[in-house]
Request: fold
Amino acid sequence: VLGAACLTRVAYLTSLTEVTTFDPVQQEASIRRGRVPVEPQFMGVGADLLAVGMNNRVWFFELHEDRWEELGDREYLGNVRSVSVTGDYAAVLFEDKIQLHLVDGCEEGDESR
Reply:
């Protein structure tokens, strides 16, 4: 099963292109399902962000109380092995390198480190 976790939030693949997120600690029902554009090979979840992708491309989503908002996607210079998201940043491991960048906008001109 493909999945990811951050603190008490859990995300997992429920069908080929559907991801479910939930927080079992919250009092109210926190289960949300959303469609993603591809069948992901990897996934990362943060407090308010979800990242899914395959090969050298990653799609980023902002998680709201009642919906997901697609922030965009980004291509990397090699096949991505894993992705982690937290706050406003994503850390992407590809070709034995880690790239840290802002997620907002997901354009190639974003600040990277």
